[in-house]
Specification:
heterodimer; A: mainly alpha; 60% helix
């Protein structure tokens, strides 16, 4: 009797395992196809038709996340570039233009910028002052967090190019990649390439070998300054680091 | 599917395929470069968004509209063009009753095609005849209650009827997929509000030997062309895969990069080269409008001498050109307009709009239009600019100068319509003229105050296939404003309980553009078969004076 009961319990467990296993596989395959075709009307219709299937719920959650993610705003991007390329980056024309583009990168005037703090010498920051005194849509009406747009990427591309053309900003960045301060050009190693990646992709998972390899191809063998500029430039314009 | 994603996948697949058939890396790189140039054109292409176009021209200050888009007696007959209606203080024509006795009078012009009596500017095309391209597709919405007596709020409500709420331009911008979601200049940009976090790019109409509005606007794409080779594309594809795998990919970012690269590769010059010929074309249109060609519909062909002084020795209030300022000894009032007279930034505005729209850079432009400038007030060639907020502008000055201003605007719009038609864009376009309010003409001809209870809206669109005049106005027979100044009257579309309202206009424009109703209420004031819009038949299409 006990043997029979154990047999039944085992059968139920095996059945549950098969069912769970099947359910875990199905949505993964579905997600892949949905993401590949985002924006395709027919597929969106298909998603609505599939609403009755519980396995499609994660797909819908993923879609919602897809459109609701935020991007870095103008101040955050400015700070990131100064952090990567050093204080001289603050003089790069394209970066200053980027910082001023409230309509494109988001980040409207903030009331908190208007404080005449002791730390700021009791002076109002000129940028904050001009922003606060403007009533144009580009200032007050600018979005807090922007959606991805063509102008953003064009300006970021421009900044990426200008910081690498400038010897001071390039040297500041490459110094963070060198395995030691005594080498002139960092060696083309996965570890060094990973440093380039991490300069931009803050707080994000490390990449697969495929991405590391592709950057190493750009660095070339033996490594050269132009090779490192290509790797930094490509990482800089790769755009996904903007996603919060 | 986003263009960018398809582009990267295209390059990726192309590379793989070429590798499979054994072509050398150098040759495959060359072939991919060649193939990729074919998708560069996609930089300015709207890939998958709405194809509608919206252009809003704001008239800050609220100039009088009976010279422009407020036909006061549209249904008169040849025998009775004034429709048996009083017009004290409202003039559309200046003539001479006798020596030193200029008269501002109400004298509409009859459109031979639509048979409507319209403000005479419409029959004063400097090339002769009427502005038929605009007229054939125009809806004159009159007797619209704007409800609020406030310059800024009234103007912004044309775009955003619920103050601070979503705007027509914002709703369309978020549905389009152009490089610039929207472009805007002047005060009207403050009305922009979309459901998505986006703002219009600001336009700067400054023109010099080295800069122009298009080069200024295209500054975003003035950088060096991005490096394009197999290794870079392979790395970018790996970045896409990485972001996808880790669940933070944004397709918009990928697409934006490819489209911005395409625009950089096309080069700023591709667009700025259009500037000079387009700007010159509109400069010519403004100059034509400021000429004496075909001005007879709104002005006497004989010299219009200044009015005599009153018996008290004070100037005629009708000759006031500003607060406590009067016209001087100008021997002929027609010479008020000269070869330097212009409408501020008008040619630059229209050239910018035409290039941005016809080159596919944006589908949404909202912009202020400037006022008329460099008018002459005496024989010593003294100059003045005419205020649009014409509280203190006498009717003799206002009628001539304001009509010239509108003539320049319409002459440019006529050209813009032709440019849109040439690109097959006109049938998808709505051009709207609006301001904060109409004006209330003072019966003594000394000026006009805010007429927010009876304003007007002009729509010009390829979706409107026949001239429409719609809306009821009321005669204000008593008080300071006795005469006709366009006080709105109840209309059958609203069960004769209310006049047409701004919300009804906004709802209709949203319908034309395929948008949800930005005003959340209101009625359609035009009828549609789904693609074309026209006046309702029967009483719902009426334009009566009551």
């Amino acid at each position: 009797m006990f043997r029979s009961m154990y047999a039944r319990i085992s059968l139920v467990i095996v059945s549950l395992f098969v069912m769970v296993h099947f359910q875990n596989c199905a949505p993964a395959a579905k997600e892949e196809s949905v993401l590949d075709s985002m924006g395709n009307a027919n597929l969106i219709d298909q998603i609505h038709k599939d609403n009755d299937h519980s396995t499609d719920i994660p797909v819908q959650e993923k879609m919602a996340l897809e459109v609701s993610k935020s991007l870095l705003d103008r101040s955050m991007i400015y700070s990131l570039f100064v952090d990567i390329f050093g204080p001289d980056a603050a003089a790069i024309a394209a970066l200053n233009q980027l910082r001023a583009e409230r309509a494109v990168f988001g980040g409207p005037c903030s009331v908190y910028e208007n404080f005449k703090s002791v730390r700021a010498g009791l002076k109002m920051d000129s940028e904050a002052e001009s922003c606060a005194n403007s009533e144009t849509a580009n200032n007050l009406g600018a979005p807090v967090n922007p959606v991805a747009n063509v102008l953003q990427q064009a300006l970021i591309n421009d900044v990426c190019q200008q910081v690498l053309l400038n010897a001071k900003t390039y040297n500041y960045a490459i110094a963070q990649i060198k395995e030691s301060s005594t080498v002139a050009i960092p060696a083309n190693t996965p570890a060094n390439v990973l440093k380039v990646f991490r300069l931009f992709y803050r707080g994000k998972p490390d990449p697969d070998a495929g991405l590391v390899n592709s950057l190493q191809v750009l660095v070339g063998e033996p490594a050269s300054a132009d090779g490192w500029k290509a790797a930094i430039s490509t990482t800089c314009v790769s755009s996904h680091w903007q996603a919060l | 599917m986003g263009n960018g994603q398809s582009r990267r996948k295209f390059l990726e697949n192309a590379t793989k395929s070429l590798g499979l058939v054994g072509i050398s890396p150098m040759m495959s790189n060359f072939i991919v470069q060649t193939l990729s140039s074919q998708v560069l054109a996609a930089g300015t292409t709207n890939s998958g968004g709405s194809d509608k176009i919206y252009i809003f021209f704001a008239l800050p200050g609220g100039p009088p509209r009976w010279f422009f888009d407020l036909p006061l007696t549209p249904n008169g007959t040849t025998a009775k063009p004034t429709d048996n209606f009083s017009h004290n203080g409202v003039a559309t024509y200046v003539g001479m009753a006798g020596a030193g006795d200029p008269q501002a009078m109400y004298k509409p012009w009859r459109d031979p095609v639509s048979k409507y009596w319209l403000p005479p500017v419409w029959g004063s095309n400097p090339s002769g005849g009427s502005f038929k391209n605009c007229l054939a597709n125009a809806a004159f919405i009159r007797g619209v209650d704007f409800e609020i007596n406030n310059h800024d709020l009234g103007r912004l409500r044309n775009q955003s009827p619920i103050i601070g709420g979503l705007s027509i331009a914002g709703l369309l911008a978020e549905k389009t997929n152009s490089a610039f979601p929207a472009a805007s200049a002047g005060s009207i940009g403050a009305a922009f509000k979309a459901g998505k976090p986006m703002s219009p790019v600001g336009l700067n109409y400054a023109v010099s030997a080295t800069t122009n509005p298009i080069s200024t606007t295209m500054r975003y794409f003035a950088g060096r062309a991005p490096v394009e080779n197999l290794a870079v594309n392979q790395a970018l594809t790996e970045f896409d895969k990485y972001a996808d795998k880790n669940n933070f990919i944004q397709k918009g970012l990928t697409e934006s990069k490819d489209r911005s690269d395409a625009l950089v590769q096309q080069g700023v010059s591709t667009f700025t080269n259009k500037w000079q010929p387009t700007y010159d074309k509109y400069l010519l249109k403004v100059k034509e409008a400021m000429s004496m060609n075909n001005t007879s519909p709104f002005m006497d062909t004989k010299p219009i001498s200044p009015p005599k002084m009153t018996t008290a020795g004070t100037p005629d209030i009708r000759s006031r050109r500003g607060d406590a300022q009067f016209m001087g000894d100008l021997s002929d009032y027609r010479n008020m307009v000269n070869d330097q007279t212009t409408v501020s930034n008008l040619a630059a505005t229209f050239a910018t709009v035409e290039i941005l729209i016809t080159m596919g850079l944006t589908q949404v432009v909202t912009t202020d239009l400037g006022g008329i400038a460099n008018l002459v007030f005496n024989n010593a060639n003294g100059k003045f600019n005419l205020a649009n907020d014409q509280h203190f502008i006498g009717t003799l000055v206002s009628t001539i100068a304001t009509t010239f201003m509108y003539r320049a605007m319409i002459n440019c719009t006529e050209e813009l319509v032709l440019a849109l038609k040439e690109k097959n864009l006109f049938d998808k376009t709505v051009i709207q003229f609006g301001a904060e309010f109409n004006r209330t003409a003072k019966a003594d001809g000394s000026g006009s105050d805010h007429g927010f209870k009876g304003s007007s809206v002009l729509l010009i669109s390829g979706m409107i296939k026949k001239t429409v005049v719609l809306g009821n106005v009321k005669d204000d027979a008593t008080g300071t404003y006795k005469g006709t100044w366009g006080l709105a009257a109840p209309h059958p579309i609203l069960d004769n309980k209310y006049p047409l309202r701004l919300n009804d206009v906004a709802k209709t424009i949203c319908g034309m553009l395929g948008l949800k109703n930005v005003s959340n209420n209101g009625e359609y004031i035009l009828n549609t078969d789904g693609s074309q819009w026209e006046a309702f038949t029967g009483v719902k299409g009426e334009a009566k004076n009551v």
